[in-house]
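Action item from last meeting closed. Structure (152 res):
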């Protein structure tokens, strides 16, 4: 016997344990390949200098961001998306903001007869919702999670 090194499958046990330990340390440092944590995001939304009375804000991940779409309700110019529902730290998102006006009732028939229909007008221009050009990158730094939008 040349020393007391037990071998398994042709490699000394100490070498196999060392490799296993290295793999475990690398996985821990890399976060085991998991996603970045979701974060709370909040802020204000105004249009033409006035707070958006009620609406919605939605964060859509861009092509280079993995994750889910998320959003929240705008009430009296404020929104608050809790951490459990929030966007992922480090991700870049396209933001859509919508706000609907008061409900209007009209007759879809020229004669004015028949059932009435209701419609709500979109108050925010398409460049901030359907054709949004708004982009944000969500930082891992909680001090930067407040995102205010002053739409013109």
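Sequence:
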């Amino acid at each position: 016997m040349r020393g007391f090194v037990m071998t398994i499958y042709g490699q000394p046990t100490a070498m196999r344990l060392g490799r296993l330990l290295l793999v475990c340390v690398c996985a821990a440092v890399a976060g085991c390949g998991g996603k970045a944590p979701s974060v709370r995001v909040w802020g204000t939304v105004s249009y033409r200098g006035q707070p958006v009375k009620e609406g919605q804000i939605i964060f859509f991940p861009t092509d280079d961001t993995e994750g889910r779409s998320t959003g929240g309700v705008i009430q009296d110019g404020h929104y608050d998306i809790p951490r459990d529902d929030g966007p992922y730290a480090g991700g870049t998102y396209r933001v859509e903001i919508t706000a609907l006006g008061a409900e209007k009732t009209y007759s879809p028939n020229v004669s004015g007869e028949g059932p009435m229909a209701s419609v709500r007008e979109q108050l925010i221009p398409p460049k901030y919702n359907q054709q949004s050009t708004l982009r944000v990158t969500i930082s891992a730094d909680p001090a930067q999670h407040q995102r205010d939008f002053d739409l013109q």
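Note appended to the action item: The first strand starts at residue 7 and ends at 8.
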